[in-house]
Amino acid sequence: MPMKSISTRGTVTSLKFLLFITLMAMGSVRVPASVGPIPVTDRDLAAAVSTTLDRDLTLSRLRLTVHASSGMVTLSGRVPNLNLQREAVRLAAGQRGVLAIDDQIELRTGDPSDRTVLLRIESILALHSDLRAPNLRMTVVSGRALPSGTVGTIGRLLFLQERLSGIPGVRRVDLSGVSLETARSIPRSDKILHDAILALLKNPLVFPVSGYIRVDVVDGETTLSGEVPRLIDSMEAEFVAGLVGGADRIQNDLTINPHHGRTRIWDPSRP
Question: I need a labelling partner for 268 at 20 to 30 A (CA). Which of 21, 117, 146, 159 fits?
């Protein structure tokens, strides 16, 4: 099986940013800070992640296996849907000491035909007129749900993702073909883009994370550098930066330092 790895570097799409901020507003993204001493050994780190997963009543019944090696945490086992797989990864990324995640979790969905999965999707979405044709068209290929078309709000987009991810037989949800009716491409200068991203990262209601983050924007490309204490903090910083219209190219060079305890966003206007 190919490795599905989540690390501290990379770029993500604006659509994911929109989903993220909606989740955050609903209070379902922020991962509580891990308590107790920071794990030192691989065994301690694996035990800490396992304890975190066991606090979730559903995940605790699935008995996922956790292995750690030099900060890389491997999750394995079987779950019935994508939502639970994502929740396991999210919780593991919130543990201090986790530098990257190798997601080897398998979906226990049986082997339904694409036609069967499509019928399940259509039956669930049948009561929502704005999520049916002609606004939205649905295709399933090898277990991948591929909706295309438009939705009216971020909330409906989030609803669509959650519904699709909870359907047995759906192995992946690809929302790249879905757009928001209100979405607009906003051209911005490097300085305006920089200042807007900086303002979001400095807002404790949007990004309440301890760490040191520097933002640089050159020729429309945003680079995040510095240190944050957890992998989930690095992921969230990238998401938050992408909330700004025009921030379509983001390079995440943040490093993970679990011993980092101070809060600072680098501001070039200050000495």
Answer: 21
Write the pLDDT tens digit of every residue in 51-103: 999 999 999 999 999 999 999 999 999 998 898 998 999 999 999 899 999 99
What domains sit in the chain, N to C, each tagged with a CATH number? Answer: 31-107 (3.30.1340), 114-180 (3.30.1340), 190-265 (3.30.1340.30)
Q: How far is CA 76 from the centre of its chain?
A: 19
pLDDT digits (tens, 9 = 90+) for 202-255: 888 778 776 688 999 998 899 999 988 889 888 888 888 877 767 768 899 999
User: Is-contact 143 114, C-beta < 8 A?
Assistant: yes
Cβ atoms 151, 157 nearer than 8 A: yes
Is the pTM value of this prediction over 0.85? no
DSSP state string for 108-146: ------HHHHHHHHHHHHTT-GGGSTTTEE--EETTEE-
**Residue 217 and residue 35: Cα distance in Å, rounded?**
35
For CA atoms 32, 36, 41, 43, give the dihedral sign. negative
